[in-house]
Amino acid sequence: MPIFRRLREDLATARAHDPAARSGLEVFLVYSGLHAIWAYRVAHRLWRARWRFPARVISQLTRFLTGIEIHPGATIGRRFFIDHGMGVVIGETAVIGDDVMLYHGVTLGGKAPRNTPPGTKRHPTLDDGVTVGAGAKILGDITIGAWSAVGANAVVTRSAPPHSLVVGVPATVRPLSHQTADAARGVHDWHI
């Protein structure tokens, strides 16, 4: 996808998810979640080209500037949005689908024993359309199914099927109601 088209898509995604966004210029200049995603894309290209050290330098500089740490080895889809963003951590082997939204303080963390071989998947997969509430911790090589919602401050260590509501410490999985599923797809305004 051409870079300017991708930037326009990112700006439109932010404006669609955040009712406080007043203009494309404001989103472009002050949304740290977008700045972190843009820097991640540069670092990810370097990572894939095996320029690992410069990629890590960019990711750490971005962390310092935005408060959002995205490992350059993570895989992230289109229309990904981080609302507010401070304290978000996305690990090296995390996989994030299209149309995913994270709130501040979310961790997509690893869970593996010491001496795990390099390249082993240790971080979660979020399928398309997943929304993760503020402060949630999703740990290990698990999958959160498409169009699911993870509640604020949930600690998730087990996979969830599509269209699930994942809440609590430790998290439990429930099916989403039709109304909540519509909200997760953006049909209604909601926050978890």
From TrEMBL:
The lineage of its organism: Bacteria, Bacillati, Actinomycetota, Actinomycetes, Micrococcales. It holds the Pfam family Hexapep. It is an enzyme of class 2 (transferase). Belongs to the transferase hexapeptide repeat family. The keyword Transport does not apply. It catalyses: L-serine + acetyl-CoA = O-acetyl-L-serine + CoA. Its EC number is 2.3.1.30. This is Serine acetyltransferase. Gene3D superfamilies: Hexapeptide repeat proteins, serine acetyltransferase, domain 1.
